[in-house]
Amino acid sequence: MSKSPDAFRTISEVADWLGVQAHVLRFWESRFNQVKPVKRAGGRRYYRPNDMRLLGGIKKLLHEDGITIKGVQRILREQGVAHVSALSQGLDEVAKPDATANDSVVVPFSSKPVETSEQINLNLDDAAPAAEAPKVEPAAPKPQPVAAKPTPEFLDEAPLLGGIATQAWNRTDFDDDLLKQIAPVAKDLRAVLNRIENRTAG
Where are the beta strands (DSSP E) in 31-132? Predict the structure, then answer.
């Protein structure tokens, strides 16, 4: 049995009647203070026939006439609720769903293919990799200034990570607080280096 035209409707019934999603009605309620559904216990909304006509007029102005939210707010201020409500579809008419409510507007995402020459195998598990990684030619080492004691090139360069690593690199004295922040990073780094050493040795 269908409801009487004067009966209150739930948000899902009004959304179906207008052909929009329920969250659209809640959004319009936040933008147009003239939309005031009755709220019962638990925040459940019930729409009267006049609320529905107002929403129908708002939908026509926004979706069919292409007027902006600010434009519709101005029309409501200058011409009144009755004018906007008169633009609504009939309470017994059911609108076709909006194209914007359709899932087809979602743009499929696909990652950009990466050339195999740029890939480096970082698989550190004990199991052998399924396919051999392509070999990458190492970059030519940067010339280092002559030092009294030769040091590996990576010890002369500050880390590019920023944050706590850069702070630690640039300091000569360490307080307990900084050491506590560095400790987990150092522990993880040591574990990775151990795995690399084990793989190269074996």
Answer: 38-39, 45-47
What residues pair up with 38 in beta bridges, in sequence order? 46
Handedness of CA 76, 80, 81, 83 (dihedral sign): negative
- C-alpha dihedral sign at 85, 91, 95, 98: positive
Written as six digits, the tokens of 85 are: 């409500």
Question: Quick one: which of 166, 164, 167, 169 has its CA closest to 181?
Answer: 164
Bin 76: left if φ > 0, else alpha if -120 < ψ < 50, else beta: alpha
Q: Which two tokens stand for residue 164?
A: 């706590």
Rounded CA separation 34/130 (Å) = 64
CA angle 160, 161, 167 (to 5 degrees): 95
Q: Pick from 94, 97, 95, 75: which is nearest to 86 by CA?
A: 75
d(C-alpha 22, C-alpha 44), whole Å: 12
Output the pTM of the full model: 0.47
Residue with tokens 């007027």, as numbered in its chain: 67
pLDDT per residue as tens digits for the range 33-55:
999 999 888 888 899 999 999 99
14-18, 99-103, 113-117: range with lowest mean pLDDT: 99-103
How many residues are there in the chain? 202
Determine the 3-state secondary structure of 191 from DSSP. Answer: helix
